[in-house]
Amino acid sequence: MPSLQNDRLLRALLRQPVDRTPIWLMRQAGRYLPEYRETRRRAGSFLALCKDPALATEVTLQPIARFGLDAAILFSDILTVPDAMGLGLYFVEGEGPKFERPLRSEWEIRNLSAPDPTVELAYVLDAVRQIRRALDGSVPLIGFSGSPWTLACYMVEGGASEDYRTVKTLLYTRPDLMHRILEVTTQAVIDYLNAQIEAGAQAVMLFDSWGGVLAEEAFKTFSLPYLARIVAGLRREAEGRIVPSIVFTKGGGVWLEDLASIGADAVGLDWTMDIGRARTLVGDRVALQGNLDPAILFAPPDVVVREACKVLEAFGHGSGHVFNLGHGISQHTPPEHVAALVHAVQTESVKYHQKA
After folding, report:
1. What is the pLDDT of residue 356?
2. Which end of the chain is more exposed for a tag (fewer CB within 10 A), N or C?
3. What angle do CA 96, 98, 99 make, to 5 degrees?
C-alpha cells in the first residue's frame, strides 16, 4: 500500500500533535449528496449498493472528493453482521431495515453462531481493499461495526423500534438468553473488525447507537463489558502503524468515564455533552470525537461556522480532538453547508495547535 499522505486522523486519535483538527462526518456518504443518489439509483437498492464493492467504493470516495475531509469511512451498514448470521436483512422504503427471521425463540438463540467474515461478509472486505486502492494513500480508511447491544436490538425487535419492548423484555426476563446473543455477536464483531483491518482499514469504530436507551445497571451489564471485550480483541497494529479504535454510545455522556476506561483510543460524543467538560472528565486517557448537533447544518453557513468554532473553543488547545457531528448527517442537509463546516474547521482550528 502507498504511504499515507494525510495521517491527521490517526495522529489525533492517538493524541499525537497535529497541525489542525481533523474532520470527518458520520454518514458522510449519503442521501444529502446528489452524486450518492445517482449511484444508489444505478444500484437499484440500498442493500445492492452495500453488496457491490465497486459501487460501495464509488460512494465512499464521493464526500472525500467534494469536501476534502481527513478520513474516508467504509460504506456499508451495521446490519450486515446479523444478515450474515442468517436473519434475512431487507429494507422497506420509508420504514428502514427489517429482518425476515428475528430472534424470538430460545432454540433460535441457542443455535446462533458467529459467521466467517471471509466467507459471508467477503463483499465488505472486497470493498475495503478496493477503497484502499482508490484512496491511494490520500487519507485513512475507517472500518466499523455496530455494537453487540445495538445489533441485538435489531435482531430481536426485527427492525427499528420506538420503545425496545421486545428486546428489553428479553433482557429483564431471560438475561441468560440476552447474554447468549451478546456473546455470539461480540465474537462476530471481533472477527469482522479484525478482518476489515486485515483487508486495509486503518482505524475502526464501534457504533453503540442504542446504548443510551438502557438504564445504568443494564448498560453496565449488557453493553459496556461487551464493548470492552471487543476492544481487547482487536488487532492493534497493521502496516507498521497502530490501528486506533473509537467507541460511540449515542446518549452515553452519563457514562463517559466508564467508556473512557475500556481501552479504546477515542470516545465519540453526541451533541448533548459539552466537549470541554468531557475533556476535563477524561483528561488524557482518550481522544474525543465530536460533537456538533447535526441539526445546525440546516442553518445558514455563517451560523454553521459560528457553532463549529464554539466546539473548537470548548475543546481548547492541544491534540486529541477529531471534529465530527454528534450523530449521522441528515439526508436533508444542504451540501454547501457541509462545505462551510469543513472549511471552518480546517482554517479556524489551526490556532489551537500552535505552540505559544
Report:
1. 61
2. C
3. 165
